[in-house]
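Final paragraph of the annual report: two paired records, presented back to back.
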Amino acid sequence: MFKRARIAAKSAARRSTFARRVLAALLAASLLPAAASSVEARDPLLAYGARIVGDDARTRIVIDFDREPRFSVHYIANPERIVVDLPATAFGFPAKDLAARGLFKDIRYGKMDEESARIVLTTAGPVKLALAKVQADETGNGHRLVLDAEMIDKKAFAELVKTQSWSDRTEAAQTTSAIPAPQKAAPGDFVIAVDAGHGGIDTGAIGVDTKTEEKQVTLAFAKALTDRLNKEPGIKAFLTREDDEFLSLSQRVLIARQNHAGLFISLHADTLKQKDIRGATVYTISDKASDKLAADLAERENLSDQIAGKETVAEPPEVADILLDLTRRETQAFSISLAESVLNSFKDQVGTINNPHRHAGFRVLQAPDVPSILLEIGFLSNAEDEKLLLDEAWRGKIAGLLTDAVKRYRAAVIANGG
């Protein structure tokens, strides 16, 4: 059944030169020039072709690389996933070429950090890789990674998870010097962490018309907001991520706290099934969601780590309760004050949904000592919102209004002895 995959492999090398040109054009046109130059400097692998064949009993994935890739495979439960870790890799093939089918119900791939990339295969049930190897291309140009997956029972999958040994470098990196810091922050400066939602392998939502990825939209807005805030005397803002890199939810919180942020603003541009809903929304944390829309959004956002193939480590209930209690008692009032200041700035300037201040259990807002909001700037599922989200002038306007909101919030805190 893998005959088509072998035939396709023979023509893959001929597409390599074209794929490189396409990739170079994409990098040159990217919203992230700094990331592009960094990637080029590190000379990442190029994955220039991919295909998937098979059924719900056995499925093969073949990915073509310009040179031999090193890789490792791990298994994660709840839900069942197969994680393939790679060195820094640029993925230059069309997404449709690796669309989920057969044993896989979702396939994600992308950058984890400057030195690594990852493929996450979410399976329809317990699955193992009966074959995982790199083969030289018959033409002598490049190599291909071949992954043959087959069904197994739950007990066998549990044994795979139990007996493996692996460490997640991206999680370990959260305590290193790679954590961004505000530039030239002076004593007494009001420090603000601006968090661009999603990133790397976690693309976020996809635009209804342009198919723009949410991670690009949020980073563009985060950069515009940070630049605008840093023009204000006594305010120093910094980005939690500066390029197309994956950060876990806990890393984002830790970055804000380790840099002594007085505010944490997480930017998003989600999608909804109801395409007619548009406008901005401001969310604060709560152990009980204000409504179903807020609950559903929090559930999706809290899956970010799972999408990136990270193991879910459940906190003891008492720890979670303490975190929420600390947040509620020490910072929730400040978070609500910031949310209200943002909505006051948006009034008659930016469209908002009905009841624009909502709350739910967002993990990214759980810093116990940093007032935090999650701002949905608009919805990529709405064509009108999508146009605005991609408009540079609109980004500048939003950045100015948010800066005004932060200044009012800061003035109120200072007036109250904060």
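The closing record of the year follows.
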Amino acid sequence: MADDENPDRSGEDEFQELLRNLLGGAGGAGIDPAQLEGLSRMGVDPAMLQQIMGQMQAAFTQSAAAGGAPDGIDWSGAKTQALHLANRDGLGITAGDRTEFDQAFALATLWLSEATTVSDLASPPVAITRGQWVEQTLPVWQELAEPVADSIAGALTSVLDEQTPEEMRQLVAGAGAFMRRIGGSMFAAQLGGVIGRLSLEVVSGGDVGIPLMPDGVAAILPQNFADFGRDLEVTDDQLALYLATRELAHARLFRHAKWLRLHVISQVTDFARGIHVDTSALEDLAARFDPSQPEELRSLLESGALLPQRTPAQEAALTRLENLLATIEGWVDVVTADATARLPEAPKIAEAVRRRRAVGGPAEQAMASLVGLELRPRRLREASAMWRAVTDAVGAAARDSLWDYPDLMPGPGDIDDPAGLIVRLRARAAGEAPPRDAMDDALDALLAEAAADEAASGEGSDGENPADGGDGADGGDSADGGDTAPDDPRPV
């Protein structure tokens, strides 16, 4: 018995040894029962402490096995959960499926070449399973969600520190990193569940609207394609051709405008970095949290209750992102419509795709709750109308040239007023200076102000430097051999 062997040991000594045993890998299995009973003298519930430390030790052990840092976030749980859901009812790719989509992609490639000047992909498009979609898109999901996971994990650590009595803070100082891992790992598992459910809904690589697939890769999920077309009452071959064309257009655009991928991802992460967790909700939960039943924390994560109302800065970031996604998908819509004009059912399929993107499925709604971000282009119809007006006015080549550089890409004002964009494009084609706008006037005013400041500064310098005055000219004359130098009254 611990007390019999060391009768002079204090309860604090016992608590320190217990923490060392639990955090060091014992997990409670080798702890002397008398040691646990002695904690009651300090007002600590031994059973509760053992459960907490057991979860902490498990989180740490999983992280070490995955090669993660003790204070980082272990994303292996996200992958495990996502693949579990994706493969649970997942089907393989049959030879018939592969042949069908190979043919659809081949014809879609020819049609797209007639509708856009954006070049073809370097690698052939593919048919993939749900599990393969998870594997290929998970790195991007992790990048998008990491700021939110950090915020939640940091909030849990902060709440632990605030809820710990002063006399015990030194004893549990090492538990903060483990609590951070627990919060991060739990968030990662929830994210994995959302991605797994999303794998049951997406039809193609670009279906969500953001560049999830590796650069230059176009893909279709045959299993989800069958589910999507079941209630549309269109033939499979027309649906396959339309979706293949749309997926190729999306992948081509991101491969052509190499800056666009980073532009989209950075806008999403900028929004996510502004998220701050509602610590009051966590503090309320901490007062009654039972580590052996973490369902309440999972429920808070899933519902979005931990993410407070958006700040004005976040609302502005979200508006910019929505305009960007609408601009991208509006171009994809118009190019796809032109390329599939031969398909009798193309307008019907296009409307179904637009409605699906506008409403979003259950998994996409879960993503909005978990990360606070809705990846839906609210101005898709207006953006499509802009691209249609530009195409009709100046043609596909001039339209597609707007993706050559970031500063050429249409902005929200162009969506509102396509006529102004068309005027600029026509002026550029004619070699004329583009019409002036408010930004030009502001830039001219700024340059004029800078020039005036520089002139004023120069005048002050001239007045202070006598060498620049008229006397210097006289000295110059004397150098030419005149008689004025000896009579100069100025001291040498």
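The longest strand covers residues 126-127. This concludes the annual technical report; the extension proposal builds directly on these records.
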